[in-house]
Design brief:
The complex is a heterodimer of chains A (342) and B (326). Chain A has 342 residues and is α/β, with parallel strands linked by helices. Chain A has helices at residues 20-45, 60-69, 83-88, 93-100, 134-148, 166-177, 208-211, 226-241, 272-278, 281-291, 296-319, and strands spanning 75-79, 124-128, 154-159, 182-188, 219-222, 247-252. A six-stranded parallel β-sheet of chain A has the order 2-1-3-4-6-5, sandwiched between helices. Chain A starts with 19 loop residues before the first helix and ends in a 23-residue tail after the last helix. With 326 residues, chain B is α/β, with parallel strands linked by helices. Chain B has eleven helices and 14 strands. Chain B has helices at 6-20, 44-48, 60-72, 91-104, 134-137, 151-163, 212-227, 244-254, 269-280, 303-309, 313-325, and strands at residues 2-5, 24-28, 53-55, 76-83, 114-119, 144-146, 168-173, 180-183, 196-199, 204-208, 231-235, 238-240, 257-264, 290-294. Chain B has a seven-stranded mixed β-sheet, sandwiched between helices. In chain B, helix 9 (269-280) links the parallel strand 13 and strand 14. The chains are: A alpha/beta (342), B alpha/beta (326). Chains A and B meet through strand 2, helix 5 and helix 6 of A and helix 3 and helix 4 of B.
Chain lengths: 342, 326
C-alpha cells in the first residue's frame, strides 16, 4: 500500500464496541461475498455468465460492514459493482447468480442482469449503471423518509470515479441543504475504471476532500477493515436518524480483479496488488478474530457453511430453466404490458 | 365555470391534486416563494407550505433524481424543469432511469412522477430556451408524454398524469401561458391517451399539438372561408399513450392527413404518426401525408426569423390548400 492510501493511525477499530455475534456475522458476510464473487468469476470463465460483470473481490469489508450496521427497512442504492451490496442485505445467492446467468430463478428473471440487481423486499432499491445517477435518487428516498417521518436511512454506495460527475455534487448539496437522512459511501479503490483516480482528480481524497464544500465532516477510513466500516457507518446512521443530516464516508480499498470482466488490469503498479492482498479484508478479519480467541473451528465451520450455500445456489442455477420468453413484453408500463397506443 | 389562463390552470391542477393526496409534492427552481418563473405555481407555497412545495438549487439532476427516489418509495412528486431545453442536463433520468426501472426490476419498482416543463417557442428566447422537445421524450418505452393546449386540458391531463402509476413528461407550452379558457368548477380529471376532435371536417385531418392547435384551428377556419376546404382538427394531446384509433378514424373519413409540428423536421413526433398511418391506413389515403414543421434549424431569437421558422397560420393554410388542389 502506498503512502497516499494508508489510513491514518488511530482509525483502527475499538473492537470492544462490537458484539461477538455481530463480528461473526460480518465475518460470514465477507466470506459469503468473497465466495459468491469468486463463483461468479468462475462461471464467467465457463461462459455460463454472459455480458459484463464488475466484481467486488477485495472490497468485501465495505459492503459487509455497512450492511451489518443497517437496520431492516434501511435502503441500499448500489452501483453496477453491486453484487456484494445486494448479497450483504440478505438476498439469496441463488437469486443473484440466477440473474447473472439469465435464468428464470434470477432476482429479476433476467430482465436486469448483473448491473441492475434490485430486491425491494430486502431494501435493495436498485443497482445503477450510469455513474453517479443514484446519488440524487438516494436523496429522494431520504427526502420521502424525512417528509413522512419514517426512520429509515438511505445508503448510497459509489466508487471514486463518481465523485467527478455533476450528479455527485448536486446530490451532496441537495442532501446537506435539506439535512436528509442519507449516507454516501465512497469506495475509493484507486482506479476510476482503468485510469488511476489520482491522475484525474484535483484533490487527494476524491470523496472526503469534497465534503467540506457541503459543510460535511471529512471522513476517510480503512475500507478493508469491516469493524471500522461498521463503527463509522453506525455513527453516520445515528446522525441521520437524529435529523442531523447526511454523511460522506470515503472508504479506502482495492479491487483484486479488473474494472470489469474485460479488464486484465495491466495498469496496476508492480507489486501493488500483492501489497493490497496482504491487507485482504477477509484474511485480516479472520486473523483478528482468531487472535481474540475465536476458535479456528468456528470460523472453518462458517467457511464450510458458506461454501455449501454457494455450491447449492450454483447447482440450482445450473438446473434452472432459461428465463421465460413470455416476460419479454411485460412490465414496461404499470398495466403490465408494453403497449403505448390504442 | 370560470375564465382561467393556462398558467392559472397549471396552479389549479397542482392544487387540486395536492389537496386530494398528501403524497403529492412539488419541487423545482423558483417554484415556491417566487411562484415559478412562468408564474404557473403562484399560491401553492402559501397554500401547502414549505414541506410540500420546495425551491431547489439549479440542479436539474438533483431535481429529477430526488423526484425519482421519492416516487420509488411512496411519494407522488411533480418536478418542474423550468425550460424544457434543460432536460438536456438531466437527460439521464428521462432516458435511462425513469422509463427502464419497472422493466429492469421485473415490475418491483415503479416511478409514478410528473416532470413539468415550459416547452416550445414564440417567445423570442433563442435556440436554447425555445425548443419543442416532444421527440426527446417519446422515444423511450416506459415514459408517457402529454402536451395540453387549453386551460381545461391542463387541469384534467395534469390530474391524470399525477394519478398515473407511470412517469409522465408534461409539456406546457410557454406561449400559451397567457391564453384564457373556460374551466368548469369542481374536480377535473381527464384521461391520458385520448385525442380530441376540436373541429369536425370532411376534406382533411389536421393533427396538432400545443401551440400548433390554436394555429391549426385558425387555419381550418381560413381554409373553409377562403377556399371551401373542410378540415378536421385533432388535438393529439397525448403522444404516449397515443390515441391511434381517433387519428385513424379521422383519416378514414377524410382521406388526407397533415401534421402540424413545432419541432424541427428531423424525427419530429409527426413522423411516427405518419408512419403508423402509412402502415395501417394506406388505402384510406387519397394523397400523400404531409408534415408541416419547423425547418431543420435551431430556433433563432429575432421575432421576424422565429416567426418564419415556426409554422404560422398562413403557412398551414397555404400548404394544405396547395396539397389538396394540386
Amino acid at each position: 500500500m502506498t503512502e497516499k492510501t494508508r489510513p491514518s493511525a488511530g482509525e483502527t477499530a475499538p473492537a470492544g464496541q462490537i458484539s461477538p455475534e455481530k463480528r461473526l456475522e460480518m465475518y460470514r458476510l465477507q466470506v459469503l461475498l468473497r465466495q459468491a464473487e469468486q463463483r461468479a468469476y468462475d462461471l464467467f470463465l465457463q461462459n455460463k455468465i454472459k455480458g459484463t460483470s464488475h466484481l467486488s473481490l477485495g472490497q468485501e469489508a465495505v459492503a459487509a460492514g455497512a450492511a451489518a450496521a443497517m437496520r431492516p427497512g434501511d435502503l441500499s442504492f448500489c452501483t453496477y459493482r453491486g453484487h456484494a451490496h445486494t448479497l450483504a442485505r440478505g438476498v439469496p445467492v441463488e437469486k443473484v447468480l440466477g440473474e447473472l446467468m439469465g435464468r428464470d430463478n434470477g432476482l429479476m428473471r433476467g430482465k436486469g442482469g448483473s448491473m441492475h440487481l434490485t430486491s425491494l423486499e430486502h431494501g435493495v432499491m436498485g443497482s445503477y449503471a450510469i455513474v453517479g445517477a443514484h446519488l440524487p435518487i438516494a436523496c429522494g428516498a431520504a427526502w420521502r423518509a424525512q417528509y413522512k417521518g419514517d426512520s429509515d436511512v438511505s445508503v448510497c454506495f459509489f466508487g471514486d470515479g463518481a465523485t467527478n460527475i455533476g450528479a455527485f455534487h448536486e446530490a451532496l448539496n441537495f442532501a446537506a441543504c435539506r439535512k436528509l437522512p442519507v449516507v454516501f459511501v465512497c469506495e475509493n479503490n484507486l482506479y476510476m475504471e482503468y485510469t488511476p483516480i489520482a491522475e484525474v482528480t484535483a484533490v487527494k481524497h476524491p470523496g472526503a476532500d469534497r465534503a467540506g464544500a457541503y459543510g460535511l465532516e471529512r471522513i476517510v477510513i480503512d475500507g478493508n477493515d469491516a469493524d471500522v466500516v461498521y463503527l463509522t457507518m453506525s455513527k453516520a446512521f445515528a446522525r441521520a436518524r437524529a435529523g442531523e443530516g447526511p454523511s460522506l464516508i470515503e472508504c479506502l480499498t482495492y479491487r483484486h480483479s479488473g474494472h470489469s470482466r474485460a479488464d486484465p488490469a495491466k495498469y496496476r503498479l508492480p507489486g501493488e496488488l500483492d501489497r493490497w492482498k496482504e491487507r485482504d479484508p477477509v484474511s485480516i478479519y479472520r486473523k483478528r478474530l482468531e487472535a481474540e480467541g475465536v476458535p479456528g473451528a468456528t470460523l472453518d465451520a462458517i467457511d464450510g457453511e458458506v461454501r455449501r450455500v454457494v455450491d447449492d445456489a450454483t447447482q440450482a442455477c445450473e438446473a434452472a430453466p432459461s428465463t421465460s420468453e413470455d416476460i419479454l413484453f411485460t412490465d414496461v408500463y404499470a398495466d403490465g404490458g408494453c403497449s403505448w397506443r390504442n | 365555470m370560470a375564465q382561467l389562463t393556462y398558467r392559472e390552470a397549471v396552479a389549479r391542477g397542482i392544487a387540486q391534486e395536492m389537496a386530494r393526496d398528501e403524497n403529492v409534492v412539488l419541487l423545482g427552481e423558483d417554484v415556491a416563494k417566487a411562484g415559478g418563473v412562468f408564474k404557473a405555481t403562484v399560491g401553492l407555497f402559501e397554500q401547502f407550505g414549505p414541506k410540500r412545495v420546495l425551491d431547489t438549487p439549479i440542479s436539474e439532476q438533483a431535481i429529477l433524481g430526488a423526484a425519482m427516489g421519492a416516487a420509488m418509495t411512496g411519494l407522488k412528486p411533480i418536478a418542474e424543469i423550468m425550460f424544457a431545453d434543460f432536460l438536456g442536463v438531466c437527460y439521464d433520468y428521462i432516458a435511462n432511469e425513469f422509463p427502464k426501472t419497472r422493466y429492469m426490476t421485473n415490475g418491483q419498482v415503479s416511478c409514478p412522477l410528473v416532470v413539468r416543463c415550459g416547452n416550445g417557442g414564440g417567445a423570442r428566447f433563442g435556440a436554447q430556451h425555445s425548443q419543442s422537445v416532444e421527440n426527446w421524450c417519446m422515444q423511450f418505452p416506459g415514459l408517457k408524454v402529454v402536451s395540453p393546449s387549453s386551460p381545461v386540458d391542463v387541469i384534467g391531463l395534469l390530474a391524470a398524469a399525477v394519478r398515473d402509476p407511470d412517469p409522465v413528461v408534461f409539456l406546457e407550452h410557454k406561449s400559451l401561458y397567457a391564453v384564457r379558457g373556460e374551466v368548469p368548477d369542481g374536480e377535473i380529471l381527464d384521461t391520458l391517451g385520448t385525442a380530441k376532435i376540436l373541429r369536425p371536417g370532411g376534406d382533411a385531418s389536421i393533427l396538432a399539438l400545443g401551440m400548433m392547435v390554436p394555429r391549426s384551428l385558425q387555419a381550418a377556419e381560413a381554409l373553409q372561408e377562403r377556399h371551401g376546404i373542410s378540415c378536421e382538427v385533432i388535438d393529439v394531446r397525448s403522444l404516449v399513450p397515443l390515441d391511434t384509433q381517433c387519428i385513424l378514424g379521422s383519416v378514414a373519413r377524410t382521406g388526407r392527413v397533415f401534421t402540424v409540428e413545432e419541432n424541427p423536421r428531423q424525427l419530429g413526433w409527426g413522423s411516427e404518426l405518419v408512419s403508423i398511418i402509412a402502415d395501417e391506413a394506406f388505402y384510406d389515403l387519397d394523397g400523400p401525408a404531409v408534415r408541416i414543421t419547423t425547418p431543420n434549424i435551431p430556433l433563432p431569437a429575432a421575432d421576424a426569423l422565429e416567426d418564419l421558422a415556426i409554422p404560422s397560420v398562413d403557412r398551414i393554410v397555404e400548404m394544405i390548400r396547395r396539397s389538396l388542389t394540386a
